[in-house]
Amino acid sequence: MKTSRRPIDPVELAILRSVFHSIAEEMGAALRRTSFSPNIKERRDYSCAVFDSAGNVIAMGDHMPVHLGSMPMSVRTAIDTLELAPGDVAILNDPYGGGTHLPDITMVMPVHIGNARSPLFYVSSRAHHADVGGCYPGSMGPCREIYQEGVRIPPVRIMQRGQVLKDVMNLVLNNVRTPAEREGDLTAQIGACRIGGDRLRDVVAKYGRPHVQRYTGALLDYSERLMREQLKRLPAGVFRAEDFLDNDGVADEPIAIRAAITLEPRSATARVDFSGSDPQCAGSINAVYAITYSAVYYVFRCLLSEDAPATAGIMRPIEVIAPEGTIVNARPPAAVAGGNVETSQRIVDVLMRALAEAAPARVPAASSGTMNNLTIGGLNPAARGGLPFAYYETTAGGMGARPGADGLSGVHTHMTNSLNTPVEALEYAYPFRVRRYGYRPGSGGNGKFRGGDGLVREIELLTDAQVTLLADRRKRGPYGLAGGEPGAPGRSLLIGKDGNTTELPAKCSIAACKGDRVRIESPGGGGWGDLALSGLSAR
Amino acid sequence: MRIAVDTGGTFTDCVFLRNGRLEVLKLFSTPADPGEAILRAIREIASGGNSGVEIRHGTTVGTNTLLERKGARVAFITTAGFEDTIAIGRQARANLYDWLHTPAPPLVPAELRFGVPERTSAEGEALRTPSDSELSELLARVQASSPDAIAISLLFSFANPAHERAVAERFRDMRIPLSLSHEILPEFREYERASTVVVNAYLAPRMGRYIAGLETRAKAEFRGAELHVMQSSGGIVSAATAAREPVRTVLSGPAGGVVGAFHVARLAGFTRVIAFDMGGTSTDVSLVDARGPTTTNEALVSGLPISVPTLDIHTVGAGGGSLARFDAAGALRVGPQSAGADPGPICYGRGTQPTVTDANLVLGRLDPRHFLGGRVELDLARAQHYMDAARGTLPDLPGFAAGVVRLAEATMEKAIRVISVERGHDPRDFTLVAFGGAGPLHACALARSLRIPRVLVPQMPGALSALGILISDTVMDYSKTVMLTGAGADLEPHFGELESRARREFASEGLTGVAIRSLDIRYVGQGYELNVPAGRTALQNFHAAHQKRYGYADPRRPVEIVNLRVRMAAAAESVRFRKSAIRKGNARQAIAAEVRVHFGAKAARAPLYQREQLRPGDMFAGPAIVAEYSATTVLPPNCRARVDAFGNMVIDVS
After folding, report:
1. Phi and psi angles of residue A228, each rounded to the nearest 5 degrees, phi first
2. Residue B611 Cα, gap to closest chain A Cα (Å)
3. What is the model's pLDDT at position B347?
4. Does ipTM come in above 0.90?
5. Residue A439: which domain range?
6. Contacts of B99 in chain A (CB under 8 A)
7. What's the confidence (pLDDT) of residue A539?
């Protein structure tokens, strides 16, 4: 890129920042508008982003935090593997090739200006698909190998010179349970990319190519400066922490994640080293590197005192080391479905625990640290049509107490922010009756500031069904900070028609009967500050 | 005599017809008792105890009560086991990357949430009915909490309201406002319904007192006076209904603005409109296509879902008072913080941080001596001084000020893109109607960057909302969730029930209305609905609407009829707008001065026109500034304005 001696204009910079961000948001709006499945439309589990010619992310919509650092890796892999020509779109979901877990399918499209041979930008859309095949409906079950988890797509073209490649599309659709819905969602993703491409061409026409290129670079530098300004204000040192996942659902052994964060304010850099974390496991909670990188990105972005554009510049001063073959950088053929939803949360917990020592006034205690993924599948009773159903939901928990404020109760934290399904919508759509949905009093950890309370959600089955649970924080509650107590661990109960109550393991799949109730009690957040020192009495 | 009164933070605007001519009266508001300014205005307009005054009111009492969280102590009663749903909401957080953010607490604290041991199924079957002693015990607990108002929203009350009615019966004797979910919003989705009902209860005591007080005073002074209130839906209701269901009036004033914008644009020959109302702290934008203003059932006000029909207005927290500053890495930012009324912009004499208004002043786009008809003198030197100190690395003051204006406009542009491009509309098909104090300052630049071909600045940009209120029809909306699968379902009994209630309520106010039926339909398995007119072609229309809005349709896929809707409307007596004769002119008579104005970084000399002196048929070109009592219009170079027969300025920006 040509450099100019003229200084960067802070107004032009702000304008281009706003323009790129609005393009990512507009792609997201188009995807939400044109996709079919509730997972994208209602739960909003998707992201859209814009990249420069070298594949650096320059704008991302405010959608899903877990996609922050992982989406650029998909784009990187796509452009390293395929030489994308005008009108081409790449598709991929392979966690071992730029993806996160199989349900997240990413599309990447180059944006060429005029007759240029190489693209000036890339745009990308990612969505969590309700099913991508494999052993279990919903593709989130307790597998042992990635081959059981669903169809695995390396970067391939799904569109060439503006035409969808039917053979590739059919190959994907033949391997999933609800092909019509998948086709609608995949088409919507391609449409979102096209909208991004069109708008980028407008922007170049309006501002001129040299100007846009210059300020694309300036935007990356600017985000880097925002991060460095923050890093300069943190103390020097090595800050270490560890935390555990309860188990992998196969062996009942805790799994450790360890991190050492080295802060160097003089050079305004940070290094995050996960050496010493446990080896990858037999169950499905392995995280690939992209997820670990996203968790680091998320935590450092939250540390910034200003809202910052989610660009590659933010991560320039930060190095991430995750040894291969560990729980934070798994190798094939490990199963990974839960890495995205459970392990990602624990990585955040470890990083925050380490940073709490460096910036005690900025970092909250641990939040619930599990999404309590619940899948219920079976056949509707004859009176409801007898067709198969599959339902997936997550239950939020307590937020960790903040230095200066209690944690919020019953809210999604960190790597997710999907919405609940209304009780009245649920009971129309599925053979369930919700018996209780409310806060779980007293589950938040005590402290000068209290952790938020978890939730209780109890669902009665009106027909026999297979119940699959992928949860954590059932043994160790979310930690407190500065003397605050931990939040209460979560519980999952099966309450039989006869009133017999069984506690379910964190990760399991069981055959339940009509009249049984599944009760999820999500963990409370950790407390902050020593109650005794604060002069308050226990509440 | 019909008088529309729109109460704002600073001014109370009145629009009325005198001898077939529209007239405007502007008074300072009396925030401590908004009714005071209203009565003063009516005295002035209907001098001499004129009988038969119909007052139509756009009120901010509801909005302000909500924004300031100064409403009633509400007891919330729901199905036992679900007391917290009102606080949990959708279990998502508002700020993704801010650990320390704390949202406003829910309107109902934990100690005011009560559960009834009862349950109704989705099909309306009573699974568990509360016993007499359970209801007595509930009553005792609620009474002990001494609430000012009660909100009742039981699960599936819309499928069978028996339990909700039985509970409500027990509370009649408390003689405090009761808000019942099967009456206010008989639709599914328990959180959004409960939120709507709770907001209603939260506003009811205060709005009830305000409206009753105003009506009594008006009737005492003006024999036969009637009071009507503007709803967020863009329709008028009686004072009694507004007092009972104040949740329907929360966006009363802004709704008037949209109706007014649509009306003046349509008279001027333009049916597709983007209404752009920019004020001191916020900006409202709304899109109106050929079918009229669009309503939504998913409004969010002050973080609270309100699901009664509301005009689809998108609000961004940016306006003339938005603050400009440089961030830690050297980029300029404008907003979201605002100087507000106190300290206000630098040029008002107290603030020291640059705002968008200061930038406009420094650029010569506001006339310091004629702001608000000269009532307020803007301190240019002060603005120059503090802005110069805040310009950071930028080489000069005009460059800084122009940057602030451009960034504010970038925020506005985003807001307009959200309601147009993101919903599948092409801005090139629309006319931008600019109003509010700051709208016409930025409209031409905005139109250009969005490729909107023209801007319309109405004859009374400061009173457009009052105008909209004056001409609105009386409207009541009724709905019910039915959740019926397939095409064969018999809807007639359901519609019949809604319509007989509608006719009864209209008749009690001496009105006869026309019922318009519509259906909310979706494909089975979807989580969102589309509204289409009821009738034999409803399903066909649904597939077509789905195709248009979402880009595809599948007529073989089974559908669900989710909600039935009836809109009962009684047309307002029509208001004739006087058309003046067009006589070609060059507007020279309106030039008051020549001023130096910056467009971007370049300065140019431009005439300053007095809007009041412009005549229908006048044509003139930019660069120019047009000043009037409550607004200033900026015409950049190469824009051409003409004054139409209604006194609107129509500006061609292409």
Report:
1. -65, -40
2. 33
3. 94
4. yes
5. 364-539
6. 302, 362-364, 402
7. 43
**Tokens found for residue B215:** 């009506």
**Residue for token digits 């004629």?**
B370
Residues 108-137 of A with CB under 8 A from B: none
Domain-located, residue B561: yes
Q: Kindly give, in sequence order, each residue whose CB lies less than 8 Å from that of residue B421, ignoring residues fewer than 6 positions away.
A: A26, B427
The token duo for B541 is 């229309």
Range B462-468 average pLDDT: 91
Rounded CA-CA distance A123/A18 in Å is 16
CB-based contacts of B308: which residues, under 8 Å, 6+ apart? B184, B185, B196, B232, B233, B245, B247, B248, B297, B477
In the predicted model, residues of chain A with pLDDT beneath 50 are 1-3, 537-539
Domain end position, chosen among A173, A197, A223: A223
Report yes or no: B155 and A423 within 8 Å, Cβ to Cβ.
yes
**B439 φ, ψ (degrees, to nearest 5):** -55, -55
Beta-bridge partner residues of A491: A521
For B504, the 3-state DSSP assignment is: helix
Domain membership flag for residue A275? no
β-pairing verdict for A46-52 and B454-457 = unpaired
Query: Is B104 inside a domain boundary?
Result: yes
CA distance A363 to A378: 43
Q: State the burial class of residue A420 (Cβ atoms within 10 Å of its Cβ: 0-12, 13-18, 19+).
A: buried
Instruction: Please confirm whether the linkage preceding B336 is cis (ω < 30° from 0).
Output: yes
Nearest to B96 among A34, A42, A417 (CB): A417
B546 in the same domain as B496: yes
Alpha carbon distance B632, A325 (integer Å): 66
Instruction: Tell whether B115 and B240 lie within a shared domain.
Output: no
With cut-offs at 50, 70 and 90, classify the pLDDT of residue B260: very high
Residue B545: strand, helix, or coil? helix
| DSSP state for residue A191 in the 8-state scheme | H
> Could you tell me if B111 and B45 lie in one domain?
no
Decide if B100 and A435 are in contact by the 8 Å CB cutoff: no
CB contact under 8 A, B91 and A17: no
Please state whether the predicted TM-score (pTM) of the whole model is above 0.90.
yes
Say if A272 falls within a structural domain. Answer: no
CATH of the domain at B15: 3.30.420.40
Query: Hey, are the CB atoms on B328 and A420 less than 8 Å from each other?
Result: no
Q: How long a stretch of residues is chain A?
A: 539
Pairwise CB contact (< 8 Å): A14 & B326? no
> Considering A223, A243, A273, which residue would you say is the last residue of a domain?
A223
Cβ under 8 Å to A: B residues 315-354:
326-333
How many domains is chain B built from?
4
| Contact assignment for A36 to B188 by CB distance below 8 Å | no
Q: Quick check: B83 contacting A, CB < 8 Å? A: yes
